[in-house]
Description:
Layout: H1 2-12, H2 14-24, H3 26-30, H4 36-41, H5 45-52, H6 56-73, E1 78-82, H7 90-96, E2 109-114, H8 120-126, E3 134-138, E4 155-161, H9 170-180, E5 181-192, H10 197-203, H11 225-234, E6 242-245, E7 255-261, E8 273-278, H12 284-299, E9 303-308, E10 321-324, H13 338-350
Parallel strand pairs: 1-2, 1-4, 2-3, 4-5, 8-9, 8-10
Antiparallel strand pairs: 5-7, 6-7
Helix pairs in contact: 1-2, 2-5, 2-10, 6-7
Amino acid sequence: AEEELLARVEKSSTDGAAVCHHGRRLLEILRGQVQPLEVLQEDNLLEAYYSQGVGRQKTVAQVAEYMDLLAHKSPDMNILEIGAGTGATTLPVMQAIGGIDGSAPRFSSYTFTDTSSEHFEKARDKLKPWASVTKFHKLNIEEEPVSQGLEDEGYDVVIASNILHATHSMDSTMAHVRKLIKPGGKLVFVETTHDLLRTSMVLGTLPGWWMGQADGRQWSPNMSQQRWHDTLVQQGFSGIDTAVHDSEEARDRCFSMMISTATPVPIKTIPDQILIIEPDHPITEIQSLSHTVIECLRDMGSSASITTLDQTLKWDLSNMECIVMTEAVQPLLMDMNTSTFDAVKHVILNSAG
């Protein structure tokens, strides 16, 4: 009965075949008698697992569909793919965005990258119809990309399919990804956001599975969708704008196709005019603080003045930003009369900030 069950599982999917094949050799792997990568590479099982595993083709199709919509909107995009490998994601994407069977390509360039040039010749053959708009470039995303010959903020879209997690530091990796993308450009990526037992079973014996341990990814290199969002925000992205999954059932999900936007780097400026609003009867510490702030602002080229809240009604605040210190002595709303309320409204509604 057990052998019959295993035979059914093995024939059911690429994942099933990988689990069964790996499981039969697990004792040898744990004893160090055979390397796990050797086991998984037998009969091209690992390549099939990465390209045809449960949910993988669905998420690649989702990437291609999104790129089709994006190309309709912006047919002059410069696209870069990180860790393109054998082109399993590249080909469906390029078929979706044109340049084959007489159609014009709805993009300006597609830069195919990988950590080594091992797969470039096969990829060139696979992508031959797009030879005039395809570039090949070695890229290790764990290192600064501009120093590797790529353009700083030179790409409208960066695609990454199941590759970003395979790095030691997600903050460093995503900072490098951000350097590639123009402000307002898109990151389109696929990652495992929910570890299933079969995934850990197949890949958990590979050394690369544990490379994120020092980065807080203790049991796998993968991250939840929420952690991806937080990491993206910290590294100059909008977070997760949109996410679609390989299964409608949350418990069965493994892969997510996620989209994020590269946010412009904020330009910090000091306002030209600043008004410091003190209490009617400021204590010595408040007066000292106000004068210190004024000196600092003047050193930075700003004009700063001091007044009280009631006196602000006499000021034109349209081009002024206000620093309000009135509550340093007591809560403003505790005992507010009509004139004070009018002054508060004047500051809130009319000042520049």
